[in-house]
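Narrative of accomplishments. A recurring question from our advisory board has been how the design workflow behaves on a single, concrete structure rather than in aggregate. To address it, we present the structure tokens for one chain from the evaluation set, followed by the sequence designed for it. No filtering or post-editing was applied between the two.
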């Protein structure tokens, strides 16, 4: 519980200031850096993409908007509530709109580091957001901040809280970094095994063109102006629906064709492999677990019964095959990568002659993929838990619970 805490208006204990609203025509490629929302990260300042102005303007009209060492920067537009304390290495730096700088008016009453943590607390951020205006992008300003009050304990207690938070968040940061590393390692483990399979083929492997493996097709789009072509009879797959979450899955519920529209489209049976063959996502591969139709930006392969379909999905995901697609696609047109059906179906793909061996490889890859997905879910949940832990600790800190 809070004991000996006092509550005052934010404006009574803090100086806060928003920038002057520098116009784009005043920007200069090289000059005096300007802080903006994108520069304020979670606890640090990144000026790699900062704008700048002519230094002469500082003396002429913006002297009082220069950031000083120890200022706490707080984003007030878009993503409200990101904070960072300016260090000596961040300077020189000029304020602009959408970021407010804070500083304690009396360090003996309100410690700057305590203030920095308080501004990061969920309760404070939620109160700030409650005053926000705007529809597409929420904004707050100094006028709103003047309406807010904050509570704080004696200076000795502030320093104790800061010490606890510094230590706790440093440990959480380390745990988060380790978890992110483990997440990346789990992905790389599967990727490494997959690539190894196709870069070290056995002696009984051979090569054939896609069109020799099975039926190749390019999708088509029934006229969108004719509403009767669209419905729920069969999923209609587009590039954004392929490899939807990075594991070859396909989104089936985004859009569909009616029975009338399906007669104007093309059918890809269950077990077909779909590949995006145009644009920025050229080479994306998906494995159809049900019957679908697709648009003209996608080519499909439906293998003959002597082959294992899922094996050829994995083969087409491999770097060996992807490189062939990209080489043909980028060579066709510099501005928009594209590989037409004729070139695509004539690409060679390698595989073990024995279907039993194909099935064996698929079982191993499927098993490893499933294990990888489980690990990824565990690590993603741990990252989410760490974020919740940060919020919980901050809530306790500013409700007198530490």
């Amino acid at each position: 519980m809070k004991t000996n805490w006092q509550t005052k208006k934010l404006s009574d204990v803090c100086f806060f200031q928003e920038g002057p609203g520098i116009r784009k025509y005043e920007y200069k490629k090289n000059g005096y850096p300007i802080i903006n929302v994108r520069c304020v990260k979670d606890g640090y300042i990144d000026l790699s993409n900062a704008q700048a102005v002519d230094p002469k303007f500082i003396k002429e009209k913006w002297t009082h908007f220069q950031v000083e060492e120890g200022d706490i920067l707080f984003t007030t537009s878009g993503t409200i509530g990101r904070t960072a304390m300016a260090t000596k290495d961040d300077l020189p730096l000029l304020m602009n709109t959408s970021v407010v700088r804070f500083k304690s008016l009396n360090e003996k009453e309100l410690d700057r580091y305590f203030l920095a943590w308080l501004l990061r607390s969920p309760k404070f951020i939620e109160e700030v957001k409650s005053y926000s205006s705007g529809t597409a992008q929420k904004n707050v300003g100094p006028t709103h901040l003047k309406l807010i009050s904050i509570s704080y304990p004696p200076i000795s207690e502030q320093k104790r809280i800061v010490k606890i938070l510094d230590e706790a968040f440093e440990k959480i940061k380390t745990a988060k970094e380790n978890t992110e590393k483990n997440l990346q390692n789990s992905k790389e483990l599967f990727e490494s095994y997959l690539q190894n399979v196709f870069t070290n083929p056995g002696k009984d492997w051979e090569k054939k063109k896609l069109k020799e493996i099975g039926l190749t097709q390019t999708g088509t789009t029934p006229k969108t102006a004719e509403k009767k072509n669209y419905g729920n009879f069969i999923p209609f797959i587009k590039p954004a629906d392929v490899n939807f979450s990075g594991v070859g899955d396909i989104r089936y519920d985004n859009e569909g064709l009616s029975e009338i529209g399906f007669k104007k489209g093309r059918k890809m049976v269950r077990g077909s492999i779909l590949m995006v063959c145009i644009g920025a996502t050229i080479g994306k591969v998906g494995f159809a677990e049900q019957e679908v139709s697709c648009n003209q930006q996608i080519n499909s392969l439906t293998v003959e019964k002597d082959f294992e379909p899922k094996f050829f999905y994995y083969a087409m995901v491999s770097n060996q095959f992807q490189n062939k697609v990209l080489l043909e696609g980028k060579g066709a047109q510099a501005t928009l990568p594209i590989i037409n059906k004729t070139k695509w179906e004539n690409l060679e793909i390698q595989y073990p002659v024995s279907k039993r061996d194909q099935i064996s490889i698929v079982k191993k890859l499927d098993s490893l993929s499933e294990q990888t997905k489980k690990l990824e879910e565990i690590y993603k949940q741990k990252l989410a838990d760490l974020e919740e832990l940060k919020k919980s600790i901050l809530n306790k800190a500013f409700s007198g619970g530490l």
